[in-house]
Design brief:
Aspartate Aminotransferase, domain 1, Aspartate Aminotransferase, domain 2, 2 domains, four-stranded antiparallel sheet, binds pyridoxal-5'-phosphate
Length: about 425
């Protein structure tokens, strides 16, 4: 059984006092706080061997290469990839998705399927690919509660479909998509599936072999890792055949100069997709983050967040003038809740009140999910409010958030 009090203590940012309060941080779906263990791992790099890996064969260089490779192995184990070579470090989930959208082979006449629930980073890279290559994009409409009708997936995935980009766990509704069914339908038709795991990987056990997805995009800064770190998982054979994304230093086994021409011979993945000097501290911190979450246990994390989520849903449901976006079924939800408040026009006003009056930090806006806000008839300018929970949150955090919201509704009614 995890010791949640001790876990909370691992996060230095929560030891601050702001206006006499310890902060209540409910914006982990955007960026998770960092535990001391991750900060220490990165500091160790900066203090002891802040050099370049791969290219430099000296002592510091070797230490960097070892730590960098070890982190990749840790991360590969975290998502249960067959090999660390299927794991590419990126700057964020958006970059991971862009690599696939730009570089995956899609024949003429291909159809790409995505959903109305996607984060802009899940849909736009494919919308642009389609525009560039004259391909078709079909959008599966989510239900207003963030769930999907399987029939609409059956209708959308046809013999022309070659690529599917689907948000595994929504950053608006928190709903978990029926990935197994989507993968099965897609593979039956010879289509590939990219799972946007930006919100799923931080909160649930990951197993890319059992889910059989072809690609997975992960946002490491949402899972206690350093800011500006992401990961792309791809099946080895697909990464092998994909076009280059960025080229340059460290992507090549040889570059010849023959008959006045420069002729590159590229390395296999992951190096093929990691051009230039890498974010070594970031990758080392990413490995430390995966180890940290594993030391708690992903199933424990899931249970902890579900308990907070259930209580939040129950209380918000009973609040007049509050409208929850998303199903009440916590079995298919990740630990976040998004809502609107009738008595306050803009979600930013709700967030500002909670922050300044109660020291509660929530997210407000359209959460990079314009299409779903339009589908629900919510003016993206007014947006919605999102409270998201993670390993360091507790019942007191939830109480302070609910007390603040009740007071806001009282004074604004
Ligand atoms: C569902 C989802 N997909 C993709 C992204 C983009 O992630 P990143 O900021 O790592 O690029 C986010 C970020 O909030 C997200 O919530």
């Amino acid at each position: 059984m995890a010791d949640w009090k001790k876990i909370r203590n691992d996060f230095p940012a929560l030891k601050r006092t702001i206006d006499g309060h310890s902060p209540v941080y409910l914006d982990s779906a955007c960026m998770a706080l960092k535990p001391q263990q991750v900060i220490d791992a990165m500091n160790e790099y900066y203090e002891r061997y802040p050099a370049c890996g791969g290219r430099s064969i000296h002592t510091f260089g070797q230490e960097v290469s070892e730590a960098y490779d070890r982190s990749r192995e840790v991360f590969a184990a975290f998502i249960n990839a067959k090999s660390p070579h299927e794991c590419i470090w990126t700057r964020n989930a958006s970059e991971s998705i862009n690599i696939v959208a730009r570089s995956v082979k899609l024949p003429k006449g291909s159809k790409i399927v995505t959903t109305s629930l996607e984060h802009h980073s899940g849909s736009l890279p494919f919308v642009e690919r389609a525009r560039r290559d004259g391909l078709r994009v079909e959008v599966v409409k989510a239900r207003p509660d963030g769930t999907f009708d399987i029939e609409s997936w059956k209708d959308a995935i046809d013999n022309d479909t070659r690529m599917i980009s689907v948000v595994h766990s929504s950053n608006v509704t928190g709903t978990v998509a029926p990935l197994d069914t989507i993968v099965e339908l897609a593979h039956d038709r010879g289509a590939l599936v990219l799972s946007d795991d930006a919100q799923y990987a931080p909160h649930h056990p990951m197993d890319v072999q059992s889910s059989d997805v072809d690609f997975s995009a992960i946002s490491i800064h949402k899972m206690c890792g350093p800011s500006g770190m992401g990961l792309l998982y791809g099946k080895a054979e697909l990464l092998d055949e994909m076009d280059m994304f960025l080229t340059g230093g460290d992507t090549v086994a040889d570059v010849r100069f023959e008959n006045g021409q420069i002729i590159p011979e590229y390395l296999p993945p992951p190096e093929k997709f990691e051009a230039g000097l890498q974010n070594y501290a970031g990758a080392i911190g990413a490995g430390a983050a995966a180890e940290y979450l594993q030391s708690i246990g992903m199933q424990e994390i899931e249970k902890h967040e579900k308990a907070l989520l259930s209580k939040a849903l129950q209380e918000l449901l009973n609040m007049e003038n509050v409208h929850i976006i998303g199903t009440q079924d916590t079995e298919i939800r990740t630990g976040l809740v998004t809502f609107t408040v009738d008595t306050v026009e803009s979600a930013h006003d709700v967030a500002t009140f909670l922050d300044t009056e109660f020291g509660v930090m929530v997210r407000s806006g359209w959460h990079c999910a314009g299409p779903f806000h339009y589908q629900l008839g919510i003016d993206p300018k007014h947006g919605s409010v999102r409270a998201s929970f993670y390993v360091y949150n507790n019942a007191n955090d939830l109480d302070r958030f609910l007390t603040g919201l009740r007071q806001l509704i009282r004074v604004s009614s």
